[in-house]
Amino acid sequence: KSLNREWISLVNTSASPVSLKRWTVRTQDGKRYRFGRFTLRPGATVKLHTGSGRNTRTDRYWGSSRHLWVSVNGVATLRNGSGAVVAQCEWDRDKRDGQKTCMVGV
Q: How much is the pTM?
């Protein structure tokens, strides 16, 4: 299965843009992705893919060479730039679809 078919969707549920600069997504076993300069527009969605690719407004890439989520009952923790937990998403290993949505609101 392609690493880029495994992703987290972050959805901005607020009416305001959300700067994700310095925000992180961590796996249950401590692997971390840190957003650089990136703003999620109101109502917009961005997919954070496990594998490698070219970052765009709608797709970001972790750059991992291994699956992060579908091999275990994974938990993704989204933290803002100050380190506060914004969302936690859990995977059901039995579903194995490799996709999960985290809501990002302010």
A: 0.85
